[in-house]
Amino acid sequence: MLKPGSNDKKYYLTFTEDELEELLYHAEELVECFGLNDRIRKYKGKRPIGLYCWDIEALYEVYSHILKSDYEGLYKDKESPCCLAMQSLVNKLKKHMDLAFSDY
Fold it and tell me: Cβ neighbours of residue 10 under 8 Å, at least 6 residues apart?
């Protein structure tokens, strides 16, 4: 497994309670992300979580796919609290991903 290099920067993200709930609910979808699923499951939201650009990209890709595909039917009502929280989470991840990759 590769380790971050000396020039790799960590980005610190915080999540609202509702965003955190969605993040944790779908953490099992991150099983292919080299331990990221375990880090997310252990995250309690008390302080910012440090993520590298590739972590943020993985989270964005997985969670945006979950929102778009809505395979469980959780996000049919676009005004429901869980759908709004998921949309907010995806938007936050997109913003941080764009910021992280603009540094390169």
Answer: 4, 50, 51, 52
> Which pTM value belongs to this model?
0.90
Element (H, E) at 56: helix 53-69
Domain assignments of the chain as residue spans, ordered by start: 13-102
User: For position 5, what pLDDT does the model report?
Assistant: 82
> For 49, which DSSP code?
E
Dihedral, 32, 49, 71, 61 alpha carbons, nearest 10? -60
DSSP 80: S
- What letters, b where the CB count within 10 A reaches 16 and e where it falls short, cover 73-90? ebbeeeeeeebbbbbebb
